[in-house]
Amino acid sequence: MSAHTHDPEATVKQLAIACLTTAVGGLLLGVQLDTTGRFVGTGRTTLGIGALVSLLAVLVTSLRAARQTGSAWLPRDVAAALASGTAFFGFASAVGAVLAPGGSWMFFEVGLLVGLIVLRRRTAGALPELTPGMIGLLALMLLFRLWVTYQGSEHRWAVVELEVPLLSAIPFGFLDPVRHVSLGAFTPHELGFPPAGLDFNVSVTLWSLGFVLTVIGILWIARAGGEHEDDRVHATILQLPPGLASLVSRLLPEEEWRQLGLHGLSERRRRKRIETLVRRRVSARREFEAALRQADLQPPDTPSGFAVEIFDLLTGREALPPGRPPAPPGGEERP
């Protein structure tokens, strides 16, 4: 029926490994090491904000999918529910871990993420997905967070300090407070540093590894989740007799199942939707075939080009060699 090898057990195993990868990455994003060698958490505030952004992503993508396909995506079994919950946790952890510690920086970053989520045009399900643009933005935000954390670990609480060229050249001590201009400032409390201080090298390694694992896990969940839904659609089509199943698979190719809204449906609603889609496509093909039989198609005068290609496709003729004129309606070639 399809080039895709339908192995539900293998797909479920992929989902389980992807969920484990995402969970480990999310946990690594939430811990840090202090100078005494103890692991402590990074705090719940940023995780809560990340959960709100993740919830917004779920609502926007679900409503868009419902508007475009007429049905909303919902997990219909344990595997899909586990994948959905883990992807939500991973997305929330990734967003929370890369946000600036607080103030206007954080609100600006949250605004960028929300804008990117709302402006997305791709139809998606309820699983939070990462597009290349989203991954790039999160990576830049992570680098900014690591830079701010490094500044704090060196007891420099400004994002960037710039020297004032003219004042820095004047040798007067009373000008020291104005020789530098600080852009942005954070406190140890805003950075979430543990009371004993932060071991920057180990902590940044944990966060970087956690971010990579989380991104890989979410992408893996999206792919394995799609294959899991394809397996469910395939099982529904296989309930038909073999001949009917083969015809339905040709009318509704597997590559279009997601766009056609067959993912995330209950068994009854999926059957009804397949029935509706088959009726529409069969009706459209019959109308086209009737119009094609009634059409008076004349071969183009030119031996090649756009018109000849279309004529060959509609009449089923083989393409003529370059420079060879098309045959006239009577079947004889032109001299």
Overview of this protein structure:
The protein has 335 residues and is mostly helical. The protein has a domain at 8-230. It has eleven helices and four strands; from the N terminus they run H-E-E-H-H-H-H-E-H-E-H-H-H-H-H. The protein has helices at residues 8-29, 45-69, 78-98, 103-118, 132-153, 165-169, 188-191, 200-237, 242-251, 267-294, 306-315; strands spanning 31-33, 39-41, 158-163, 180-185. The strands form two sheets. It has a two-stranded antiparallel sheet. The protein has a two-stranded antiparallel sheet with strand order 3-4. Strand 1 and strand 2 form a beta hairpin. Helix 3 packs across helix 5 (132-153) and helix 3 packs antiparallel against helix 8. The longest helix is centred in the middle third of the chain and has 38 residues, at 200-237.
Topology of this protein?
Blueprint: H1 8-29, E1 31-33, E2 39-41, H2 45-69, H3 78-98, H4 103-118, H5 132-153, E3 158-163, H6 165-169, E4 180-185, H7 188-191, H8 200-237, H9 242-251, H10 267-294, H11 306-315
Antiparallel strand pairs: 1-2, 3-4
Helix pairs in contact: 1-3, 1-8, 2-3, 2-4, 3-5, 3-8, 4-5, 5-8
Give the key terms.
two-stranded antiparallel sheet, mainly alpha
Biggest sheet record: 2 strands, antiparallel
Distance between the termini: 47 Å
Overall pLDDT score: 79
Strand content: 5-15%
Structural class by secondary-structure content: mainly alpha
What is the helix/strand order?
A: HEEHHHHEHEHHHHH
- The number of helices is 11
